[in-house]
Amino acid sequence: MINRLPLPLAKYYVVFGLGMLLVCLVIAFSFACLRSEPTPYVWHLPPGFPEPPVPPDNPMTVEKVELGRHLFYEKQLSGNGLQSCASCHQQELAFTDGVAMPVGSTGQVVNRNSMSLVNVAYSSHFTWAHNGLANLEQQILIPLFNEQPVEMGLTGAQERVLAALASDKQYQALFAKAFPEAKSITMDNVVKALACFVRSIVSFRSAFDRYAYYGDDSALSEQALEGLALFMSERLECRHCHSGFNFADTSQHASEKGEPDAFHVTGLYYPLGSSLQPQLQSVLAGIEVDRGLYHVSGVETDKDRFRAPSLRNIAVTAPYMHDGSIQSLEEVLDFYSSAGRPAIYDGFGDGRLHPHKSLFIKGFSLTEAEKAALMAFFLSLTDNDVLSEARWSQPRND
Ligand code: HEC
Ligand code: HEC
């Protein structure tokens, strides 16, 4: 026998139950709206062009890229509150800074030239001479926390910076959208968002790209085409190290895995001891001569080996080389023509005689017309969209 409730009471239970159900649905719905699924990122690539590799634990989303953009331009992210990533990586200069060596947040000179970030998403190696950084997430820890030299100078200031971000209404909203699962703002997520933003700076819209990837035969002038042919020639050998779609032998796309032979001695200089470069002594007090990959590997034959950087937007990224010691592209051509550089500092040997110099740096002579053709080719690598497009620019704070 089932015990029946008196009818009026049963009705009351049904109405109450339905009411509760409705309340639950409304709560669940508002949570779903607040914690909406992040929007997958769409790459803007030439037709059929492969996407860059992305680490599985930091997929690209529109929300993370947007948060990363704010953080990239955020001065609070530095020890002194005066410097952001953009201080050394300015959009209009293809994310370089126009100086030979930048100054970090403690006023200390960073002994290397700021690198362009365009298409760095495709890089298999990062910085001028490092073979142990697996991805951008690892690389970005260096400018944030490095102490020798100091760049952003976050070491010791981390708690203060995270608290500042957590008390800012705009960042509360941006972090909630980018990391809906996270309970608080963490440095790990700051780095992930920055990596997503930097990874998004991908662009293939230079005159060279229109010619090479969009089938526009008229995009390059006769002169630029002649320059391209020279660049690819056996006489100049540029393509051996500046190869592929980024003109760097350390680029890979999502379906590629490989360990290219990425570090080269170009004969830029040949330090004989570990003495300071005398001309730079006053500014670089305490900094040793830069021996490239050797600082990371400790292998004697890695001394003075550096990565061939991408040549995209090369016309706007002067001065050149890891130490910013070459001012113009004409001088870069002179440097390669003479198969390296004679001793420019006291106590240095002749760069051209460096025992580990690459066999591809063997010198050549160029006519004025050939030089002009190479310059026209370099200019064709400038992508004005990436230098000016709003989505990579400083966000308005509203
Ligand atoms: C004080 C100037 C300075 C600041 C600030 C700075 N960078 Fe850099 N960046 C450099 C220099 C110099 C290099 C080359 C470092 C090396 O070779 O050791 C570099 C290299 C890089 C690279 C590697 C590029 C490549 O092609 O391998 C990335 C990525 C990068 N920086 C991102 C950032 C981000 C993100 C921030 C902000 C968190 C930042 N940087 C802040 C100067 C700076
Ligand atoms: C053996 C490999 C190799 C060859 C061949 C080579 N390069 Fe390079 N290139 C490099 C490396 C490595 C660097 C960085 C050197 C440094 O900073 O110490 C570099 C730097 C450059 C830079 C400066 C990039 C910047 O952002 O500062 C330009 C421009 C350049 N090369 C153009 C050329 C041209 C043009 C040729 C052919 C005439 C050529 N390279 C041949 C390896 C090579």
Automatic annotation (TrEMBL):
Keyword presence, Oxidoreductase: yes
Source superkingdom: Bacteria
Gene3D superfamilies: Cytochrome c-like domain (1.10.760.10)
InterPro entries, per database record: Cyt_c-like_dom (IPR009056), Cyt_c-like_dom_sf (IPR036909), Cytochrome_c_Peroxidase/MauG (IPR051395), Di-haem_cyt_c_peroxidsae (IPR004852), MauG/Cytc_peroxidase (IPR026259), MbnH-like (IPR023929)
Binding site for heme c 1: 85, 88-89
Transmembrane region(s): 12-32
GO terms for MF: cytochrome-c peroxidase activity; electron transfer activity; heme binding; metal ion binding
Keywords attached to this entry: Heme, Iron, Membrane, Metal-binding, Oxidoreductase, Periplasm, Peroxidase, Signal, Transmembrane, Transmembrane helix
Residues annotated for heme c 2 binding in this entry: 238, 241-242
Domain Cytochrome c intervals: 222-382
Post-translational modification: Binds 2 heme groups per subunit.
A single Gene Ontology CC term: periplasmic space
Location relative to the cell: Periplasm
PANTHER family, sorted: CYTOCHROME C PEROXIDASE (PTHR30600:SF14), CYTOCHROME C PEROXIDASE-RELATED (PTHR30600)
Stated name of the protein: Cytochrome-c peroxidase
Taxonomic lineage from the root: Bacteria, Pseudomonadati, Pseudomonadota, Gammaproteobacteria, Cellvibrionales
